[in-house]
Amino acid sequence: MDKKIIMIVGDWYYPKMVYQSLKDEFNIEHIIVDKGESISKLLKRRIKRLGIIHVVGQLLFRVIAVSYINATSKKRYQEILDRNNIKEADFELEKTIEVTSINSEEGRKLLKKLNPDIVVIVTTRILSKKTLESINAKFINIHSGITPYYRGLHGAYWALINKDKENCGVTVHLVDEGIDTGGILYQDTIVDEITPKDNFISYTYLQLSKALPLLKKAINDIKSDSIKIQKPKADIGKELYYQPTFWFYLYKRWLYKIK
User: Fold this and answer.
1) Does residue 99 contact residue 35 with C-beta atoms inside 8 Å?
2) All residues at 6 or more sequence positions from 241 whose CB lies less than 8 Å from its CB, including other chains
3) Mean pLDDT, rounded, of the chain
4) Is the pLDDT of residue 1 over 80?
5) Nearest to residue 76, comparing CAs of 211, 195, 232?
6) Are residues 225 and 216 in contact, defined by beta-carbon separation less than 8 angstroms?
7) Could you tell me which of 59, 38, 14, 11 has the C-alpha nearest to residue 242?
């Protein structure tokens, strides 16, 4: 009997690229779109953790630096997507279900109703232990970084900042209640793909191009009951990475030429 596959995704373009890359090879029966937290709630939590000055710096980075990078790098982004046959198109409406939070009682009831064997997670909130244990399924995720070294956000950028090219890459892993702490299934690096044209955003596309074949391998491994957990190279790191502040980004760009 074939295993039932669903996706839980955030509401933006990246999950659509993952879905379009999977749908011809796998029958994705449903896509649950988690609408995500409000910006105000997210900012309050971030300020509590990092401090208001740091968060203001992150907001300036998003508004100024990321806007500039996106405006000047569209040709490079498309080049990566075309070379790897990655396309963005909307989910099929009949397969799509929206929820306020997958960690809510509503979200867990939906998971129990769908009763999947494999759940592919793409850029959504951290799933609670209660949600993960609500069904008997394998949850797998693409992480844009090499775990356990680069947990959190933008792992390729931080690896380059740390002059750690060996760990500039991507991980496909099982999902647990921690942040990027689940069992490692596959990893690969992108350092050989990086050109002088690449930057903070295009690293993500390079990572996606490496991750998609690994994600397909992982799904097939689960379908054939042959998954193997890789031993991490080091103990799980305590540090979580976030977006840089505007001033940190400018300084490191000037110092190391890392865009």
Assistant:
1) yes
2) 145, 150, 151, 152, 153, 154, 155, 158
3) 94
4) no
5) 195
6) no
7) 59
- Structure confidence at residue 231 (pLDDT): 83
Using the Cα atoms of residue 125, residue 149, residue 177 and residue 1 in order, give the sign of their dihedral.
positive
Could you give the CA distance from residue 158 to residue 156 in angstroms, rounded to a whole number? Answer: 6
CATH number of 5-256: 3.40.50.170
Q: Which helix (H) or strand (E) holds 88?
A: none
* Encoded tokens for 138: 């394998």
* Average pLDDT estimate for 171-182: 94
* pLDDT score at 235: 62
Question: Which residue matches tokens 């760009």?
Answer: 253
Residue identified by tokens 């990027």 is 180
Query: What's the mean pLDDT in 176-190?
Result: 94
Kindly list the distances between the CA atom of residue 64 and the CA atoms of 39, 69, 157, in Å, as whole numbers in the listed order. Answer: 18, 9, 18
Task: Give the span between the Cα atoms of 21 and 94, in whole angstroms.
Answer: 18
DSSP state of 66: I
Please tell me the distance from the alpha carbon of residue 150 to that of residue 236, in angstroms, as a whole number. Answer: 10
Q: Are 95 and 30 in contact (CB under 8 A)?
A: yes
Query: Would you list the domain boundaries of the chain?
Result: 5-256
Q: List all residues 6 or more positions away from 89 whose beta carbon is below 8 Å from its beta carbon.
A: 16, 20
Whether residue 237 is predicted with pLDDT greater than 80 in this model: the reply is no
Which pair of structure tokens corresponds to residue 157?
A: 């950028």
**pLDDT tens per residue across span 26-64:** 999 999 999 988 888 888 988 998 999 999 999 999 999
Check residue 216 and give its pLDDT.
Answer: 98
